[in-house]
Amino acid sequence: MASVSFDHVWRRFGPHTAVADLCLDIADGDFLVLLGASGCGKTTSLRMLAGLDEPSEGEIRIDGRVVNKVPPGERDVAMVFQSYALFPHMTVEGNLTFGPRMRRENKAATRARIAEVAQTLELTPLLGRRPAELSGGQRQRVALGRALLREPKLFLMDEPLSNLDAALRGQMRAEIVSLHRRLGITTAYVTHDQVEAMTMATRIAIMFEGRLHQAGKPAAIFDDPASLRVATFIGAPQMNIVDGQVLQADGVTMLACLGTTCRPAEGLVLRAPAGSPVRIGIRPGDIAFSPPHPGAAGFSGAVEFLEPMGSETFATMRCGRETVVVRAPGRTPLRLGERVTLYLDGRFTYAFDAEDGRALIDRSRFGLADLAARRLPA
Ligand SMILES: Nc1ncnc2c1ncn2[C@@H]1O[C@H](COP(=O)(O)OP(=O)(O)OP(=O)(O)O)[C@@H](O)[C@H]1O
């Protein structure tokens, strides 16, 4: 097991900066997910950690030792790629044996380890098959098995599930998480899929255009996004963003938007003076068709579009100049064009600076569970 530290790491390709001033610690045993849209520098960061690429500036440390110049083979890391990279002409067993054979490891010990790893990954009945005779998920398990045979200090995974269909992706997510729980190997995992990040990570690091924007536990990033950009990247459907204003009445700070006003939960500090224009964020699940508490802020909306998903329905509502998506229970009777009253819950309403998008409400002291327990006075 190992800890990792990126210390002011830059990677430039000619005039292009792929990674800018990355400072990030991965603790021993963490499952860190590097999350961001295509081209934001995730793979470059992982490749530098693997030793396949070198920082232009800054230091990468594994267990406190600077590894900038250490070749990949001496870092004790194992990498799993999106493309599995299996030998097509070899059986599963042949693919698993290849690495230990190249490393001239003891044959009997290798056989025992392969049996153990195959058991862990439920590959035992497949040892005699070739990759072409396996499903995508089974191939990915072989690739994982090969990495596991190394017993690395560090596991590095670059979008390992992106070639799989939705059902297999879900299954492999669970398998990788349970493997990590059992073995506790420090893992850095790259993806652009926020569901993978939220469900697998012990910590998430979100990057945009080469820069780290926020790192933290999944729930903390979801509850307390540092910026509008992070807020709209995490959560599906995406957080609604509407124009709003800070109001001050009788010493109470309120947020005005969608033709109504709401009050952030008591104890939350709003870092913007009265009168400031702000961008207000409300997650689709935090707009309700009935008042969440007495005196909740109501506003009117017309049903513009419905996406019935079975257990829930996403309703796009036209509210004056703004449009918001509401997550409603599956059997909510809604008709296109119908006008209904919607309710905001100020406890879960976010505010962002209208200019630079930074979060204006400090939620770090309360998680969502705490907020749910904090009822507003009627
Ligand atoms: N060898 C290279 N030469 C020039 N530019 C590169 C090189 N490798 C990466 N880049 C650029 O650096 C940026 C970051 O690339 P990187 O592959 O790290 O992004 P990513 O977030 O992993 O994207 P994806 O999810 O599409 O793999 C991109 O703009 C990419 O075009």
Describe this structure in words.
This protein is an alpha+beta fold. It has two domains: 4-226, Rossmann fold; 229-373, OB fold (Dihydrolipoamide Acetyltransferase, E2P). Helices cover 24% and strands 35% of the residues. It is built from nine helices and 22 strands. The protein has helices spanning 42-50, 92-102, 107-120, 136-149, 166-183, 194-200, 218-223, 228-233, 368-373; strands at 4-13, 16-26, 31-35, 57-62, 65-66, 77-80, 154-158, 186-191, 203-208, 211-216, 240-249, 252-257, 260-262, 269-270, 277-282, 287-288, 297-308, 312-319, 322-329, 339-344, 349-353, 361-362. Strands 6-7-8-3-9-10 form a six-stranded mixed beta sheet, with helices on both faces. A hairpin with a 2-residue loop joins strand 11 and strand 12. Helix 2 (92-102) packs parallel to helix 4 and helix 3 packs across helix 4 (136-149). The protein is elongated. The model has no long low-confidence stretch (mean pLDDT 89). Adenosine-5'-triphosphate is lined by residues 13, 16, 18, 36, 38-44, 192. Residues 13, 16, 18, 36, 38-44, 192 line the site of adenosine-5'-triphosphate (ATP). InterPro entries: AAA+_ATPase, ABC_transporter-like_ATP-bd, ABC_transporter-like_CS, ABC_transpr_MalK-like, ABC_transpr_MalK/UgpC-like, Mo/tungstate-bd_C_term_dom, NA-bd_OB-fold, P-loop_NTPase. One of its GO terms (cellular component) is ATP-binding cassette (ABC) transporter complex, substrate-binding subunit-containing.
